[in-house]
């Protein structure tokens, strides 16, 4: 029998208008976030995300998710996180971006 391990994010937030409190939620986990989403979700959420972070002392880095939760995409995003001293990664959206969703605090 093969061994399977499933780990879910320790924090999942969903609800109308919750994106406006993203900076506050991220601040509970770290201070240098990488936000990932696909281009459609980003076009719908970036204004609210920008406003959320504008009212905080944090800035964030955004990177477009390329559409497949593959080893290459994980390696690419991990390298971006390392290169930018990221200590929180946030996946915004649903579908495959949610499959990629992971948070770590260094």
TrEMBL record:
<dbReference type="InterPro" id="IPR016205">
    <property type="entry name" value="Glycerol_DH"/>
</dbReference>
<keyword id="KW-0560">Oxidoreductase</keyword>
<dbReference type="Pfam" id="PF00465">
    <property type="entry name" value="Fe-ADH"/>
</dbReference>
<feature type="domain" description="Alcohol dehydrogenase iron-type/glycerol dehydrogenase GldA">
    <location>
        <begin position="9"/>
        <end position="97"/>
    </location>
</feature>
<protein>
    <recommendedName>
        <fullName>Glycerol dehydrogenase</fullName>
        <ecNumber>1.1.1.6</ecNumber>
    </recommendedName>
</protein>
<dbReference type="GO" id="GO:0046872">
    <property type="term" value="F:metal ion binding"/>
</dbReference>
<keyword id="KW-0520">NAD</keyword>
<comment type="pathway">
    <text>Polyol metabolism; glycerol fermentation; glycerone phosphate from glycerol (oxidative route): step 1/2.</text>
</comment>
<dbReference type="GO" id="GO:0008888">
    <property type="term" value="F:glycerol dehydrogenase (NAD+) activity"/>
</dbReference>
<keyword id="KW-0479">Metal-binding</keyword>
<dbReference type="InterPro" id="IPR001670">
    <property type="entry name" value="ADH_Fe/GldA"/>
</dbReference>
């Amino acid at each position: 029998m093969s061994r399977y391990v499933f780990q879910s994010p320790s924090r999942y937030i969903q609800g109308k208008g919750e994106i406006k409190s993203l900076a506050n939620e991220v601040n509970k986990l770290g201070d240098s976030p990488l936000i990932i989403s696909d281009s459609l979700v980003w076009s719908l959420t970036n204004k609210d995300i920008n406003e959320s972070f504008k009212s905080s002392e944090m800035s964030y880095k955004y990177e477009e998710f390329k559409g497949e939760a593959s080893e290459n995409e994980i390696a690419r995003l991990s390298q971006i996180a390392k290169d930018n001293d990221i200590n929180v990664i946030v996946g915004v959206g649903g579908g495959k971006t949610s499959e990629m969703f992971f948070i770590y605090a260094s």
